[in-house]
Design goal:
The structure holds 2 protein chains of 2 kinds.
Chain A (H helix, E strand, L loop, with lengths): L2 H13 L3 H6 L28 H10 L7 H14 L2 H5 L2 H9 L16 H15 L10 H6 L1 H14 L9 H19 L3 H5 L2 H7 L8 E4 L9 H5 L20 H5 L5 E4 L14 H5 L1
Antiparallel strand pairs in A: 1-2
Helix pairs in contact in A: 3-7, 4-12, 6-10, 7-12, 9-10
Chain B lengths: L4 H19 L2 H9 L11
Classes of the chains: A mainly alpha, B mainly alpha.
């Protein structure tokens, strides 16, 4: 099993380590919920030990004070400025689920490029709607969680909504709407690599803004690169790595680094690579 | 401003924002939200 997969599994396990919650269909109510995790992990999941930053942010925006959470914005800024979308690729449990679904044998199709921009609109609406779309009492709602988030449906809606007798009578059109979105993304994930992360995730959109200049980022050593195109071809996020290794879509999965025969790509703090010894793989061999 | 110093500035800014949020008691507010089932998240709210 590759190193990244192990890290993803451990992260999913740690984020949802309140196993008692799954057995008792209750949620963790300890001090850990004061801590926001840097990934999309619903805090109403029976196993969740921490809080989802998107849910937490929206809850404070929707409250009667309509406060922007400096705590959450600060946390996400630190994580983004340090490594861009690294946490998407290595720590996000919902990203892991989509990747595992993508391993099912099926025709794989590319994502239409224009859809990649939609997540920035979702990010904007995630921040704006709880402040401007208010009920009679002046309160907003966490509209992303309410209408879109398939992670919440999978991690909290299905176990709690379907298995808790007191909640079952309350399930209505909203639940079925969210269930439909979850099913759509499950089906899409089999054919497209991480469709939710690339099209709708507001957290991924926020981190993406830092990809180009994050402290740790991908660097290509031009003296080593032979433009063989292997990195472009194997990138699961369909990035032209040779043209822009720090494209906003890059989740730092490092597959390009592992596969580069010239070891021309590095994920580092922009430290120049030493020159390659002459006996290493020649350019012609790589091109073939 | 160089591309190298930009992330450092953002990390410092992030630390300041996070500190200000914690000082305002946001962690407690987030905990209060997090310890109750989010009805919106499960498709009821």
């Amino acid at each position: 099993m590759e190193k990244r997969r192990i890290v993803q599994l451990v992260s999913a396990l740690i984020n949802n380590a309140y196993f008692k919650g799954f057995a008792s269909l209750s949620i963790y109510q300890g001090q850990g919920k004061a801590v926001c995790v840097p990934v999309l992990n619903c805090y109403s999941c029976p196993g969740a030990l921490g809080s989802c930053p998107v849910g937490a942010m929206q809850s404070l925006l929707a409250s009667y004070k309509h406060r922007l959470s400096l705590y959450v914005i600060g946390l996400l800024t630190i994580v983004g400025a340090a490594s861009g979308r690294l946490v998407c690729g290595w720590l996000c449990p919902f990203g892991l689920i989509q990747e595992l679904l993508n391993r099912f044998p099926s025709p794989k199709i590319p994502l239409p490029g224009v859809l990649k921009h939609l997540k920035y609109l979702v990010l904007l609406l995630t921040l704006l709607l709880p402040v401007v779309w208010l009920n009679a009492a002046g309160l907003g709602s966490p509209y992303f969680c309410k209408f879109l988030c398939p992670a919440g449906t999978l991690e909290a809606g299905l176990p709690l909504g379907l298995l808790t007798p007191q909640l079952q009578p309350l399930l209505g059109s909203l639940f079925y709407w969210k269930l439909a979105i979850l099913i759509i993304f499950i089906v899409l994930s089999v054919m497209i690599f991480r469709p939710f992360c690339r099209v709708l995730c507001p957290l991924g959109a926020f981190y993406a803004l830092f990809n180009a200049f994050s402290l740790w980022r991908l660097e290509i050593a031009p003296e080593r690169c032979v433009s063989c195109g292997i990195c472009d071809n194997i990138c699961p996020m369909e990035i032209a790595v040779t043209q822009n290794p720090n494209d906003r879509e890059c989740i730092r999965c490092m597959r390009c680094i592992d596969q580069c025969p010239q070891k021309a790509i590095a994920f580092s703090r922009v430290i120049p690579l030493p020159a390659l010894p002459e006996r290493d793989l020649p350019a012609e061999e790589c091109k073939s | 401003m160089s591309k190298r110093s930009l992330p450092i500035l953002f990390i410092i800014l992030g630390c300041l924002l996070m500190g200000a949020g914690l000082w305002h008691g946001e962690a407690g507010e987030i905990m209060l939200k997090g310890i109750h089932v989010c009805l919106e998240c499960i498709g009821i709210g």
